[in-house]
């Protein structure tokens, strides 16, 4: 495993963004206790900023966990927008439902339990697509969702550097899935793609009109 960012830099960045939202703090604590992967605060703030800039009508998440990333999206989206959470674990969806009820964001969210690759293509004119499912599924996810994206849409994928394993020649199927996905997105002439070495790597792709 290769360290993406010097831990001292990450510590410095986290020191710049203290958080007092009790719901975010509770989710971060839950993630630590369960050793459950979340995008964490630095990427969450990026999602918030991108949402405020893009002002999407529809955000679809493939792999929502218990709602941490969706909470950043939902706080930033307009009252007429919607964030669709899709996760295969019923307990995650139940937790997220309670979270959005408590925070008054239910009207901006739609929760779906099941296979993200089956449910995701039910939606059309997606303004932001967020991918955070099993890494070997990333190529299948973008293939299924490309026809559902709106002009000027954003594709955001977490773990795009996969603990640095993308540079290892003989990686496992997860690493190979990430590499194939990255290669595909950077080869597309209808997207402008970049990759931020933030935490575990965040791929951003803007669909050109």
Kindly describe this structure:
The chain is built from eight helices and seven strands. The chain has a seven-stranded mixed β-sheet, sandwiched between helices. It is α/β, with parallel strands linked by helices and 209 residues long. It is 42% helix and 21% strand. Strand 6 and strand 7 (202-207) form a beta hairpin. Helix 3 runs parallel beside helix 4 (68-76). It has helices spanning 7-16, 22-34, 40-54, 68-76, 90-103, 116-119, 138-145, 173-187; strands spanning 58-62, 82-87, 109-113, 126-131, 149-158, 191-196, 202-207. It has one domain (7-207): Rossmann fold (3-Layer(aba) Sandwich), CATH 3.40.50. The radius of gyration is 16 Å and the shape is globular. The longest helix is centred in the N-terminal third of the chain and has 15 residues, at 40-54.
Task: Summarize the model shown.
With 209 residues, the protein is α/β, with parallel strands linked by helices. It has helices at residues 7-16, 22-34, 40-54, 68-76, 90-103, 116-119, 138-145, 173-187, and strands spanning 58-62, 82-87, 109-113, 126-131, 149-158, 191-196, 202-207. The protein is 42% helix and 21% strand.
């Amino acid at each position: 495993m290769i360290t993406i960012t010097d831990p001292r830099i990450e510590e410095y960045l986290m020191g710049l963004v203290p958080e007092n939202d009790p719901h975010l703090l509770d989710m971060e604590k839950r993630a630590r206790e369960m050793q459950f992967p979340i995008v964490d605060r630095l990427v969450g703030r990026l999602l918030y900023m991108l949402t405020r800039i893009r002002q999407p009508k529809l955000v679809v998440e493939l792999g929502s966990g218990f709602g941490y990333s969706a909470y950043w999206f939902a706080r930033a989206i307009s009252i007429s927008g919607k964030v669709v959470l899709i996760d295969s674990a019923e307990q995650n969806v139940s937790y997220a439902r309670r979270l959005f009820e408590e925070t008054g964001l239910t009207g901006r969210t739609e929760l779906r339990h099941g296979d993200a690759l089956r449910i995701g293509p039910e939606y059309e004119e997606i303004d932001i697509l967020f991918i955070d499912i099993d890494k070997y599924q990333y190529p299948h996810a973008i293939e299924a969702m490309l026809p559902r994206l709106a002009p000027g849409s954003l594709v955001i994928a977490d773990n795009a550097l996969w603990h640095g394993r993308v540079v290892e020649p003989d990686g496992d199927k997860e690493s190979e899935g990430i590499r194939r996905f990255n290669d595909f997105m950077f080869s597309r002439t209808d997207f402008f793609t970049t990759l931020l070495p933030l935490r575990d790597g965040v791929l951003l792709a803007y669909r050109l009109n």
